[in-house]
Write a structure and sequence with these properties.
By secondary structure, the protein is α/β, with parallel strands linked by helices. The protein contains ten helices and six strands, in the order ααβαββββαβαααααα. The longest helix has 24 residues, at 127-150. The protein is globular and about 50 Å long.
């Protein structure tokens, strides 16, 4: 990665801008998930909280832990729906042709069965394996969407083909950060798996949404050292692109 001293100077000048701009301007819907989840939990008797199933496309762990729901039923939504009414596209890839959607918790097998009826595959995992795959999915959506947004919201497939070096650098950095934070070791060939998923949903547009629940987790971990990271460089690119 070749970043000049002038770029580092730009990082220093942009650090305050990053802190003040990103949480407010890039995520107008960042509280939607929070409101829905809080409403669902609050409207459910405490004795039944263990029966709730959380479908996630964001980093839910901190929120679940704050509610005492560390072992809540969870599902990794490895499928996409371009718009309401369209058939979901299963996240099968050429590196994982069997299935990618995954469930964890006491109702995992029931959820998997229902998804199968709807034409979607789903595997049942134990907590550690599920957590690794959850973090991989998080790395995918945070890296692909961020790189794509900096280039005008190009498609997921275009990110993989046209901006692969940026994507690769970002995946590497986010994976290292997640591994260090959680004390987990990811399986080899993560980049190949994530790029294979990109090919499976290549038509999908990119955008940075629900910042708090997606990129926000990584943002909080990098706080204070943005000027010396590749993700800091990408975030600053996005700020400049959004301003002009």
């Amino acid at each position: 990665m070749d970043i000049s001293l002038n770029t580092f100077s730009l990082f220093s000048q942009g650090h305050r801008l990053l802190r003040s701009y990103l949480p407010h301007r890039l995520a107008p819907s960042s509280n939607i998930f929070s409101r829905r989840s809080v409403t669902a939990v609050q409207s459910t008797p405490f004795s039944r909280w263990g029966d709730l199933v959380f479908f996630q496309n964001g980093m839910m762990e901190p929120w679940l832990e704050s509610k005492g729901l560390e072992d809540a039923n969870q599902v990794l939504a490895y499928f996409v729906v371009s718009k309401i009414g369209e058939t979901p596209i299963d996240g099968r890839t050429d590196t994982n042709p069997e299935r990618l959607i995954a469930a964890y918790g006491k109702w995992a097998s029931i959820v998997a069965a229902r998804l199968n009826v709807g034409g979607l595959s789903c595997k049942v995992l134990d907590k550690e394996v599920f957590q690794k795959q959850m973090l991989e999915k998080r790395i995918w959506i945070c890296s692909v969407m961020l790189v794509g947004a900096t280039h005008g919201g190009v498609s997921v497939g275009a990110v993989d083909i046209e901006f692969h070096t940026e994507l690769s650098n970002l995946i590497t950095e986010l994976a290292s950060t997640a591994s260090s934070e959680k004390g987990l070791t990811f399986e080899e060939a993560m980049e190949e798996r994530l790029c294979a998923y990109s090919r499976a949903v290549a038509h999908f547009p990119t955008a940075v949404r629900e910042f708090k629940w997606r990129n926000g987790w990584f943002y909080s971990l990098f706080d204070g050292m943005w000027g010396f990271t590749f993700i800091g460089y990408i975030f600053l690119q996005l700020v400049i692109y959004s301003l002009f």
